Amino acid sequence: MYIGYYDHTNSSTIHTYKKTTFQADRHSKRYRTKWLRLLVIGVLMLAAFTSGAIIHAYAGDKSVLDPNTYSKVIVTSGDTLWRIADEYAPEHEDIRHYLNDLMKLNKLKSSTIQAGDVLLLPKRD
For the segment 18-67, what is each residue's pLDDT rounded down to a tens digit? Predict the structure, then answer.
Protein backbone atom coordinates (compact mmCIF):
# COMPACT_ATOMS: atom_id res chain seq x y z
CA MET A 1 0.00 0.00 0.00
CA TYR A 2 1.35 3.38 -0.94
CA ILE A 3 0.68 6.48 1.08
CA GLY A 4 1.98 9.81 0.00
CA TYR A 5 1.23 13.37 0.89
CA TYR A 6 2.63 16.79 0.26
CA ASP A 7 3.67 18.94 3.17
CA HIS A 8 3.39 22.67 2.41
CA THR A 9 6.00 23.62 4.99
CA ASN A 10 8.56 21.25 3.61
CA SER A 11 9.06 20.97 -0.08
CA SER A 12 9.91 17.27 0.03
CA THR A 13 7.34 14.59 -0.50
CA ILE A 14 7.19 11.94 2.18
CA HIS A 15 6.50 8.45 0.95
CA THR A 16 5.52 5.69 3.30
CA TYR A 17 5.47 2.10 2.20
CA LYS A 18 3.61 -0.58 4.03
CA LYS A 19 3.66 -4.25 3.20
CA THR A 20 0.41 -5.56 1.97
CA THR A 21 -1.21 -8.30 3.99
CA PHE A 22 -0.45 -10.71 1.15
CA GLN A 23 3.29 -10.01 1.39
CA ALA A 24 3.28 -10.26 5.18
CA ASP A 25 1.36 -13.55 5.08
CA ARG A 26 3.70 -14.96 2.48
CA HIS A 27 6.76 -14.11 4.60
CA SER A 28 5.13 -15.46 7.75
CA LYS A 29 4.06 -18.66 5.98
CA ARG A 30 7.56 -19.20 4.61
CA TYR A 31 9.00 -18.68 8.11
CA ARG A 32 6.53 -21.14 9.64
CA THR A 33 7.18 -23.70 6.92
CA LYS A 34 10.92 -23.48 7.52
CA TRP A 35 10.59 -24.05 11.26
CA LEU A 36 8.00 -26.77 10.79
CA ARG A 37 10.39 -28.59 8.46
CA LEU A 38 13.20 -28.32 11.02
CA LEU A 39 10.90 -29.55 13.77
CA VAL A 40 9.79 -32.57 11.73
CA ILE A 41 13.40 -33.46 10.89
CA GLY A 42 14.36 -33.15 14.56
CA VAL A 43 11.48 -35.36 15.69
CA LEU A 44 12.33 -37.98 13.05
CA MET A 45 15.98 -38.01 14.11
CA LEU A 46 15.00 -38.32 17.76
CA ALA A 47 12.65 -41.19 16.92
CA ALA A 48 15.38 -42.95 14.94
CA PHE A 49 17.92 -42.66 17.73
CA THR A 50 15.41 -43.71 20.38
CA SER A 51 14.22 -46.74 18.45
CA GLY A 52 17.83 -47.74 17.78
CA ALA A 53 18.64 -47.51 21.48
CA ILE A 54 15.57 -49.55 22.42
CA ILE A 55 16.37 -52.23 19.86
CA HIS A 56 19.96 -52.37 21.07
CA ALA A 57 18.91 -52.62 24.71
CA TYR A 58 16.35 -55.37 24.18
CA ALA A 59 18.19 -57.33 21.51
CA GLY A 60 19.16 -60.83 22.47
CA ASP A 61 22.66 -61.71 23.53
CA LYS A 62 24.76 -62.41 20.47
CA SER A 63 26.49 -65.32 22.12
CA VAL A 64 23.62 -67.78 21.94
CA LEU A 65 24.17 -70.55 24.44
CA ASP A 66 24.36 -73.71 22.38
CA PRO A 67 24.13 -76.81 24.62
CA ASN A 68 26.72 -78.52 22.42
CA THR A 69 29.25 -75.78 23.15
CA TYR A 70 28.96 -75.63 26.93
CA SER A 71 28.94 -78.15 29.78
CA LYS A 72 27.26 -77.52 33.11
CA VAL A 73 28.54 -78.00 36.62
CA ILE A 74 26.54 -77.63 39.83
CA VAL A 75 28.44 -75.91 42.62
CA THR A 76 28.65 -77.94 45.83
CA SER A 77 29.55 -76.81 49.33
CA GLY A 78 33.20 -75.75 49.55
CA ASP A 79 33.65 -75.26 45.80
CA THR A 80 35.48 -72.20 44.54
CA LEU A 81 35.83 -70.83 41.06
CA TRP A 82 39.55 -71.48 41.22
CA ARG A 83 39.02 -75.16 42.05
CA ILE A 84 36.42 -75.55 39.29
CA ALA A 85 38.69 -73.77 36.79
CA ASP A 86 41.64 -75.94 37.85
CA GLU A 87 39.57 -79.11 37.47
CA TYR A 88 38.01 -78.32 34.07
CA ALA A 89 40.66 -76.20 32.35
CA PRO A 90 42.67 -77.96 29.64
CA GLU A 91 46.23 -78.86 30.64
CA HIS A 92 47.84 -76.50 28.15
CA GLU A 93 45.74 -73.46 29.16
CA ASP A 94 46.52 -70.98 31.92
CA ILE A 95 43.95 -71.32 34.73
CA ARG A 96 43.59 -67.53 34.95
CA HIS A 97 42.45 -67.31 31.32
CA TYR A 98 40.00 -70.17 31.79
CA LEU A 99 38.72 -68.56 35.01
CA ASN A 100 38.25 -65.22 33.22
CA ASP A 101 36.27 -66.93 30.42
CA LEU A 102 34.24 -68.82 33.03
CA MET A 103 33.32 -65.57 34.79
CA LYS A 104 32.41 -63.83 31.50
CA LEU A 105 30.31 -66.76 30.32
CA ASN A 106 28.34 -66.86 33.57
CA LYS A 107 28.25 -63.05 33.86
CA LEU A 108 29.88 -63.08 37.29
CA LYS A 109 31.22 -59.80 38.65
CA SER A 110 33.16 -61.47 41.47
CA SER A 111 34.51 -64.93 42.21
CA THR A 112 31.88 -65.54 44.89
CA ILE A 113 29.70 -68.58 44.19
CA GLN A 114 27.24 -70.49 46.35
CA ALA A 115 26.29 -74.14 46.64
CA GLY A 116 23.54 -74.95 44.16
CA ASP A 117 24.68 -72.46 41.51
CA VAL A 118 24.81 -73.87 38.00
CA LEU A 119 27.83 -72.77 36.01
CA LEU A 120 28.40 -73.15 32.30
CA LEU A 121 31.85 -74.37 31.37
CA PRO A 122 33.38 -73.38 28.06
CA LYS A 123 34.60 -76.39 26.11
CA ARG A 124 38.05 -76.24 24.65
CA ASP A 125 39.35 -78.31 21.77
Answer: 556 656 666 788 888 899 999 999 999 999 999 888 888 777 655 555 65
Distance CA 25, CA 32 (A): 10
Q: How many CA atoms lie within 13 A of 56 on its CB side?
A: 6
Is the dihedral angle over the CA atoms 78, 81, 83, 89 positive or is it negative?
A: positive
Please report the sign of the dihedral spanned by the C-alpha atoms of residue 109, residue 115, residue 118, residue 120: positive
SS3 label, residue 86: helix
Of the candidates 57, 74, 59, the residue with the CA atom closest to the CA atom of residue 121: 74
**Using an 8 Å Cβ cutoff, are 122 and 105 in contact?**
yes
Contact at 8 Å (CB) between 77 and 115?
yes
Sequence length of the chain is 125
Residue 39 φ/ψ, nearest 5 degrees = -65, -45
Distance between CA atoms of 92 and 125, rounded to whole angstroms? 11
Residue 5, strand partner residues? 14
Strand partners for 91? none
